[in-house]
Write a structure and sequence with these properties.
The protein has about 250 residues and is of the alpha/beta class. The chain has ten helices and nine strands. It is elongated, with a radius of gyration of 18 Å. Bound molecules: nicotinamide-adenine-dinucleotide and zinc ion (ZN).
Amino acid sequence: MIEEAAKLIAKAKFLIAFTGAGISAESGVPTFRGSGGLWEKYRIEEVATPEAFRRNPKLVWEFYKMRMRKMKDAKPNKAHLTLAELEDMGILKAVITQNIDDLHREAGNKRIIELHGNIYRVKCSYCDYIENLKESGRVERFLAEKELPKCPKCSNLLRPDVVWFGESLPEKELSEAFNLARRSDVCLVIGTSGQVYPAAYIPYITKEHGGYIIEVNVNEGGITPIADVFLRGKAGEIMEELLKKVKELRK
Ligand code: NAD
Ligand code: ZN
């Protein structure tokens, strides 16, 4: 099985990776669904919708600051690092991620398409103000602030620059992702339940255009029916072994 996947990757002309919360589980970032998932503790409609933010911005900010703290302490694991190495080797052309945790960037990947935003970006709920707290060096100060965050330009509330349920995905990112999916001859799907659309279309587009799908996950999910190779296991462990085999084939 893993040999078959390694062969597909070693021969790929345009490999892309499509990742979800599961790739960051071994970094200690909780997933949404599944045991220990965030939805066991919080209700979606109370923390991750535009209505929730209008109703109770305090609770929503509490939730996102909690997640920012967790993500800030997390380090990329073997799966993220393997993707960075595959890009360095010239095999992997892009990572399309549903994650907001910034761990692909931390790992060193260069071409990253973030479909659901980034936990370190905040934007004004009213004007066009946008800030990346990592780049402005304000993460710690922002987390320590007790008051709700306000826009420095217009004083309206700042909100996380993430895609909430019921919101559309950023247009540029989505069309870039779909274009990459059409071009790609192998799509490596890691740690996603494949239940959140339109993101979950990505491997389906590759498949429709004659490409192969390799899936890495501890459980089967929405992408599994079209997977040519399904590798059951933890992303870090599987990806490490897969990279070793790819390197042997390319020697
Ligand atoms: P999900 O929570 O719906 O599914 C997680 C998937 O990961 C499941 O299929 C599960 O079987 C798998 N998984 C769990 N541990 C794994 C491991 N060690 N190795 C491999 N697979 C593992 O996540 P999703 O599919 O990404 O979709 C839900 C939404 O969750 C996305 O929009 C994403 O933005 C958001 N989210 C992001 C983060 C993050 O940024 N790290 C964390 C939680 C949720
Ligand atoms: Zn503003």
